[in-house]
Design a protein that fits this description.
Elements: H1 9-23, E1 36-42, E2 49-59, E3 62-66, H2 73-81, E4 83-88, E5 91-99, H3 102-114, H4 131-140, E6 143-148
Helix pairs in contact: 3-4
Pfam family, one: F420H2_quin_red
InterPro entries: F420H2_quin_Rdtase (IPR004378), Split_barrel_FMN-bd (IPR012349)
GO molecular function: oxidoreductase activity
Length: 150
């Protein structure tokens, strides 16, 4: 069984402010060009909607969601549900989320970190790390491919 992880306390504090801004429709980007959204996914145990602010990765015409803090609650919920909504203000989009196999996830993380992902420090790899190191990291940091449901 995977180790259950929690985001650091300062992330929870920052999420409160970020959620309020995103609900108001403010277009926030993570550092650089990483769009932020409110991810709402059905709780795997309660069935109740759970919402967290997230940063998406946009590469080669695809949209990805990676977890810099490992297998946290929203990841486990998304793994169970397989779909969620992304929202910013009144704009809401339903997406299907497919967890990538470790090798594919490593490729996405490697390309993203080489392109300058400001969250790279949470993955504990650098642009010069070997592919094997990215595979090791991908095992503990799930990556999802997001596809719009029309």
């Amino acid at each position: 069984m995977a180790k259950i992880q929690k985001a650091p306390w300062f992330v929870t504090l920052g999420n409160t402010l970020t959620m309020a801004l995103l609900r108001a429709g403010v277009k926030l980007n993570g550092v650089g060009t990483y769009p932020m959204y409110l991810l709402t996914v059905r709780g795997r145990k309660s069935g109740e909607p759970r919402t967290v602010p997230i940063v998406t990765i946009e590469r080669n015409g695809e949209r990805y969601l990676a977890s810099p803090f490992g297998t946290v609650a929203w990841v486990r919920n998304l793994q169970a549900a397989g779909e969620a909504t992304l929202a910013r203000g009144r704009h809401v989009e339903t997406v299907k989320a497919r967890e990538l196999p470790q090798r594919e996830a490593a490729l996405v993380l490697q390309e993203d970190i080489k392109a300058g992902n400001p969250f790279a420090r949470y993955y504990q790899v650098t642009a010069t790390s070997s592919f094997e190191e990215f595979e090791r990291v991908a095992a503990g940091h799930p990556v999802f491919l997001l596809q719009s449901i029309l």
